[in-house]
Amino acid sequence: MLNFENTMTLANESLNVFMVVPLALCILSFLIPKGLQRAYAIAGAIFFFALSCYEVSQGLGGQTLPWLSQFGIQLGFRLDSVSKWFVVLTGLVTFIAVYLKGNWYRKSPRIFVASSFFMAFALNAAFLSTNLITFYIAYEAVFVPIIFMVGIWGTQTKAASVFKFFLMSFLGSIMMLVSMFYLIYLYQSQTGQYSAQIFDLVQVSKSIAPERLCLAFFGFFLAFAIKVPLVPFHGWVRDAYVNAPMPATIYMSGILSKLGVFGFIRFVLPIFWDQAIQYHGILVTVAAISVLYAALLAIQSKNPRELLSYSSISHLGFVMLGIFSLTSGGVGAAVLLSVAHTLASVVLFMLLHFMSERKEDLTLDRFHGLAPRFPMLFVAFFIAVLASVSLPGTVNFVGEFLVLSFSYPVSALCTVLSSIGVILGTVYMFKFYQYLGFGSPNPKTGAESVAKDIGVFEISILIFMLGLIIYLGFQPAVILRGFSS
Amino acid sequence: MSLPILPWLVLSIGLLATILISVVRVGTKRPAQIFALLTLLATFFYSVTTVPSGVENVFNGAFEVSALTQVGLALFSLIGCIFVLGTSRYLTKEGIHISDYYHLMLLMILGAAVMIGSKDLISIFIALEVMSLPAYTLAGFRRHDARSNEAGIKYFVMGGAIGAVFLLGAAFIFGATGSVSIDKIFEWSKVAQGDFTLFYIGHLLVLIAFLFKVAAVPFHFWKPDVYEGSPIAVTGMMATVISAASFIVISRLIGIVDFGRIEWGAYAAQLKQVVRVIVVMSLVVGSAVLLTQSNLKRMLAYSSISHTGYLLLGILSSISHPQEIFSVWMYLFGYCLMTSGLFVLLSQSEPKADMGVELIDLTGLMKRSPYTTCLWIVFLFSMAGIPFTVGFFSKYFVFLSSVSAGETAFVVIAAVCAVVSAYAYIRPVALMVMRDADPSASNWKGSPVSTVVATVSALAVIYFGVLPGTIVQFLKGVPIGH
Known about the structure:
The complex is a heterodimer of chains A (485) and B (482). With 485 residues, chain A is mainly alpha-helical. Chain A has a domain at 279-485. Chain A contains 20 helices and 2 strands. Chain A has a two-stranded antiparallel sheet with strand order 1-2. In chain A, strand 1 (61-68) and strand 2 (73-79) form a beta hairpin. Chain A is globular, with a radius of gyration of 22 Å. The longest helix of chain B has 32 residues, at 146-177. Helix content of chain B is 73%, strand content 1%. In chain B, helix 6 (121-139) packs antiparallel against helix 11 (232-254). Chain B has helices at residues 6-21, 31-49, 67-86, 88-94, 100-117, 121-139, 146-177, 182-191, 197-213, 222-229, 232-254, 265-292, 296-320, 326-346, 365-368, 370-384, 390-404, 408-434, 448-466, 469-476; strands spanning 56-58, 63-65. The two termini of chain B are 25 Å apart. Chain B has one domain (6-476). Chain B has 482 residues and is an all-alpha fold. At the A-B interface, helix 5, helix 6 and helix 7 of A face helix 17, helix 18 and helix 20 of B.
């Protein structure tokens, strides 16, 4: 059984700032004039990010507030060594998302800023919840800003992609809800009281015959596998990532996918430990297939966003492989790799946005020769590509190495197959870099030659993000400390 | 002097006064409207201030006054207020703003209010007719429109036939048990021996009559046409008051025998099987056909068919676990709240006759009237069961109750149907938010009063979606009385 640390002795009780601050920022944004929205959003996001870091540095904590206690729905929150990284990442991703310029600041900027902060609110509530029902509510609430973002600022086929995304996710999460009801019912039939607190339900799941929980396990598995996504459930990803406006893509790739990862760690492993062992072979195989299949899809992609979205799936396959190794060290490696993937993919999507601001058409079927014209941008791009292909010295390398070393004792075959995914990763990432950066540009499209390289502020953000990638690459213990092996 | 039936008396006296006053017309002012409103407010006031702690039987046990009837009456008069205030401009626009409308509406509410308290098959039948006859008339209220006439005739013929089915069932029950009083039938069921076939047939027939009223599949064919043809205000009343009253009577009729007794075990199992089939059909037909509708009123008709499915799921779990009936009350509460708000918004459609309010008329509404769009989104999200709206907790408690009652497989089916119908409810949201305004789309302009009414409903939908604790706690203490 996984045992991260003793959660009874946690002192930090000011967890509600993680929810109250973004919600307040969301409501306030309606009072700010349109012209000032971006400045407000950036300032608010920096404040929120700094506050998150400060609160996390104050130590772990937990608190429970009453809500519908007679039905077992408390507002239970807990900051542990898993959720603290996701909470910090939420702050960081929110900042990057609102920083990017685009038509979302021209057309109804209030809704964009409010959606961003609402997203941060819902994500934090989901990452901190110890109660299944509040987790479910927060998990669903994440849809609402995504629907608005893709719906208002997405490309032509946005409606179809929103529906695909919404329906698949909703199908998964409602199956999870039914499974939650089943667990609550089991608890109620044993004790006579309702409870949806994770600690109580873990007790129930231990005291019950494992076969009775199989269907409930698959309900949870389906929800999170769609959210991550794992390969047979990845149908929504391409359309959603490609048609969404860039901030929404950054949210989805950077942090929404981590919601699925987090769900596996926080809920599936503790409650369905026996089922996870029982179906272990399937889980590991699915993860390995995700790595390989998505990498192959990425290789044949012509659209840079599509390529990055498939590369996301491939890397998340590694994360899931770490979790399904069912060892504390593997889970730690998965958390480390999640952080690494968020940093790398957010930087890559951000750089892609900077490029598409400078050149409309970035199709990967010919050379664009952008590197000589935007040297700073492409230096950052190169480092990010190296991080994405897990070069030693980046945190991605440490994460993938640890994941593979923890999964090897569990399933040698799947580990070997996934290692091939690392090689395929270099194929598509370097192809990506090569087509965009090198070669002679098409002379017909010389209009964008007036565009300038990235500015000082952009460079400092990139230095910060890439610096984090390299710093954690040398000091992974910062994250791994909470996980005993 | 304590008079348990005071709220009903207030409503009846107000109704008579409204009929009398409706012959008077002072300029463009409509005293009938004001009288109806005052009556409903007074009824609401008296029903919430006189909630008894137990069950008080009046008229020799033919009628009960309890927390359930009081809450029901309060809810009905509240819905009445919402529609009187919210659809006044709509009635003027349609040219049917005549005083008869108000007393027919009050009569309908009175019928529904008497029906939920009736504990005697005969008084249930009388109340059913008192409720239905004004509904038939109101359905055909737009006399010059063929579809409204069709709705009136269809509703009347089918409703009349189903009234006869109810009487037949009541006759069978009387033949089997020797009584029409629900209390006496319950006492009989505790001691009865022998062959109950006659009773089974009678019981199923009276249930079918009310399943028809709530349009559970396969008794739903009248609903889309009647919804489409009737004036929006009337459709809204049908969707809320008549459905809610019928569901309360269904739960009373389901509990007519003592299922705790071993002799009734076989019948309970069969009855559950029947209800399960109806639940699945209502859910599947309701949510699947919902997807294909382009007319907003027909859409709401199929939406209410699928809501019927969820409600029957709650009823199903209450057959073996009577304490789970609160999930039905909670669902009815949430459903009435969001449906009445949605119909008030629907009545704000400006230039077209209300017949033609199509989905496409919502296109680009965000651009033209962002505030109305926000209200639409609240109600549609609530219909879909998105958290932070009352619709979420309505479904939540029905699903939780059904899992507790061992109906997990049907909860899974209901959950899949919830996804399908969520698509249908999000589609209008997508049209409103994502598309640019279409010049051919109609304008939506409500009177300030109707916007205020819709806003209050929307706030209530959100309030009970965030803090449902008090209302659930209260409804948990509302059993079905015997």
